[in-house]
Amino acid sequence: MDILTLPFMQNALAASLLASIACGIVGTLVVLNRLVFLAGGVAHAAYGGVGLAFYCGLPVLPCTLGFTLGSSVLMSTIARKYKEKADTVIGVLWAAGMAFGIILIDLTPGYNVDLMSFLFGSILTVSSYDLWLMFGLDIFILGATIVAYPGLLSISFDAEYAKSRGLPASLLHTLLVCMAALSIVMIIRVVGLILVIALLTIPPFIAERRARNLAGMMAAAIFWSMFFCIIGLGLAYWFNLTSGASIIAVASVTFFLMVGFEQLRK
């Protein structure tokens, strides 16, 4: 328990809680709407925002957030209007975003070692500024979900029915993708760009097994995400491991154990 007295560990636990709220809410909607590949494209395109921030000398998280939101709207529009070619185009934008970021980083004078934290996460170095930004993003995600809950529920289970009821399905889809972009930028600080999709999808996948409704699934996903973060942080601290990888390792082991247990019961 002595580790809880350390300021950087307190910040890490606070970041875990804030990121878990986003993971539970948005991850549930991403999984139910089968938008994992689209979310993956948005996550990797976010690296373009990181490169742009370093090249222009701008604040990293706000710049990455704006770039990621723009990428998410573009990918959402393509996914809706060109369904047959959506996977291909999203894959191209996925690679283009990363290439753009890498080139800008190459052109930036010097080399900032902190860039590695965006690839693999650096939850132990989260600052108070990062926590306040994450808190603000959580408030927006939670508020948008509450206001649009009936519509999000409808498109998650039957988009055609939602359209027939006169609900703005396209607008709701764009809102969902934008919330995913906000969550991805937040979670990058916890587990990094490379591992972000795992934390966004594994908790909802596990939560779905026992959930009776959408709200219950979100709550359970928040719990599982927080559980993975706490155990992963403890392992990283005690065994001197990379925190982001430790968190995802705990989530992955839990995932495979649950899948294996379900198979044994059949």
Topology summary:
Blueprint: H1 7-32, H2 36-56, H3 60-81, H4 86-107, H5 115-120, H6 128-147, H7 149-157, H8 159-164, H9 169-191, H10 196-207, H11 214-239, H12 243-265
Helix pairs in contact: 1-6, 1-9, 1-10, 1-11, 2-3, 2-4, 2-9, 3-4, 3-9, 6-9, 9-10, 10-11, 10-12, 11-12
Written overview of the protein:
The chain is built from twelve helices and no strands. With 266 residues, it is an all-alpha fold. Helix 2 crosses helix 9, helix 10 (196-207) crosses helix 11 (214-239) and helix 10 (196-207) runs parallel beside helix 12. 44% of the residues are buried.
Quick description:
The chain is mostly helical. The chain is built from twelve helices and no strands. The N and C termini lie far apart (41 Å).
Top CATH class: Mainly Alpha
Q: Helix amount, in percent?
A: over 70%
Query: What is the residue-averaged pLDDT?
Result: 85
Outline type: globular
Largest sheet: none
Annotation, overall tally of beta strands:
0
Ranges where pLDDT stays below 50 over 5 or more residues in a row are none
Radius of gyration, taken over Cα atoms and rounded to an integer in Å: 18 Å
**How far is the first residue's CA from the last residue's CA?**
41 Å
Number of helices: 12
Query: Which architecture name does CATH use?
Result: Orthogonal Bundle
Please indicate the count of domains: 1
The CATH superfamily name is ABC transporter involved in vitamin B12 uptake, BtuC
Category by helix and strand content: mainly alpha
Roughly what fraction of the amino acids lie in strands? under 5%
CATH topology: ABC transporter involved in vitamin B12 uptake, BtuC
H/E element sequence: HHHHHHHHHHHH
